[in-house]
Model the fold of this input.
Amino acid sequence: MLRQVEGSRAVAETVARCRPDVVAAYPISPQTHIVEALSDLVAEGRAGRCEFLMVESEFGAMSACIGASAAGGRAYTATASQGLLFMAEALPNASGLRLPVVMTVANRALGAPINIWNDHSDAMSQRDAGWIQLFASSNQEAVDLHVQAFVVAESLHVPVMVNMDGFVLTHAMEGIDVPDQDEVDALLPPFRPLHVLDPDHPVTIGAMVGPEAFTEVKYLEARRQLRSLDAIQEVADRFHRVTGRRSGGLTSSYRLEDADVVLIGLGSLLGTAADVVDELRDEGLAVGLLGVTCFRPWPLDEIRDSLADASRVVVLNRALSVGFGTVLGADVRLTLAGSQVVVHDVVAGLGGRPVTRDLVRRLLVEAVRGELSDHQLTFADLDVDLAERELLGELVGPMDVEPEGVGR
Amino acid sequence: MTTHGTRAAAEVRFHGRGGQGVVTAAELLSVAAFDQGRASQAIPSFGSERTGAPVVAYCRVADRPIRSHDPVTSPGVVVVQDPTMLHVPGILTGLRADGLLLVNSTRRPDELGLPDCVARIVTVPASDVSRARLGRPLPNTVLLGALAGLTGIVSLAALQKAIRERFRGDAGELNAALAAEGHRLAQERSTEGASHAQAG
Done:
């Protein structure tokens, strides 16, 4: 049933209906509303037999989830920004041990300078941790992805990170259909762990693996990740059959037919971009939109096929790989290597600067006219004067002084 | 995603300070619109939340699903919950030429020292009304009632229902009454405003 509800609250209710055994969390903006609401739901007895652990840190939260999952429990946590970084040491343990933990990341910039607002730097910094990474384009998709995340995680024994834009989605109140208990139960049977830590039947989990087998362990991990591409789409199809809603999957395409210029991105900017695509189509411009729902594993074939007929692709990413380009841009360039498609790499929306329809419109129009750089990273919403003034004021460093011979 | 029109039917921007219920105002408006069968969206624009800090919140109302989550940049209505913020840069930015500026103030619109470019200004002494009835100068529900009366974006009844759902018991009843008072005052002021405009 559609209700007017805050994104965080809707996610918390959805997670409660997924019947977690353990929620372990440490508060950090903009994730806090999710775990506060979950804490209330647990206290009210509306989350089954779930145990809520208020831990001392994010590292503790992920460690508790790993322990709970290894002991056979369904485990969930949520975090953001530096909180995710503080978990970083434990993330590859969850994936390496094949523990299907589900985590929400309420995406937020990384400091310094300290900034509580939205971008995708946090999640993308953990790109290689072996977690499946899904990105929600709306609050409806965010709640739907959480159900799908538990199904995918427990089918494949891989942890799943569900990304939703901090504040932009987490704090937005809108009409959201929280999947009801019957729908969730139809999709998500009780957790059947791969192996269980049990004092009565002792086993070792996570024993040391030396050079003789480590490569093979990693090969298997890579194989399973790629195999999960099929499972992620299959779970989205099952979800559609049960709820009647199209959510999740690998990618979402919008008006790609005959599109000459395609914008590719992820997260909540896709809604704004869809509005702009409609406006520009009305004006006769052949533009389209490709949303990346599953960022890891990377759906290479789907993305290459979706972009094959475009002549230009604009990558719009709220995350920067400093010294190179955008994180998403690197993947898109590799995906299209050898093709004739021109790639424009664009960063915008860092640290909460809104990605407005005017900005998206300007980018697409410039791409159509061939005015965007195809080799340099474009900072689409940069205050150029401010940046230039700052550059002028930078101090002289050691490289500005000609070295003299010493003692020769 | 399905193709549809891209502009919302109503876009409102609320300005105020932390503690004045700015975010709550946008949320209540969105709930009332939702209850009337429309799509709506309330988005706060937070700083690090603290009492007294400037807070902005947006509300969109539309007859079709709202896909965009970007801030409202060309509002049809700007609500200023704290009159000391009227001359802060950005308060009037983007307000449509035919837009409405609704201000919590004891003064008349022509006493506010605002530029002529604002089409329609209505003032309501929301803090005073709230202080008299509630004992606290919380202007948001009075202003929401005024907004409903001036624009018809939502009905007073839908607004009061949203208020009673949000605040149980006495607080709900008192705030529902404050909304009704705001609704009445705004219609009075609106008529005065029209005569001022004629005289001017």
In short: Chain B touches chain A through 28 residues (CB under 8 Å). The domain at 10-199 of chain B is CATH 3.40.920.10 (Pyruvate-ferredoxin Oxidoreductase; domain 3). The longest strand of chain B covers residues 54-62. The radius of gyration of chain B is 16 Å.
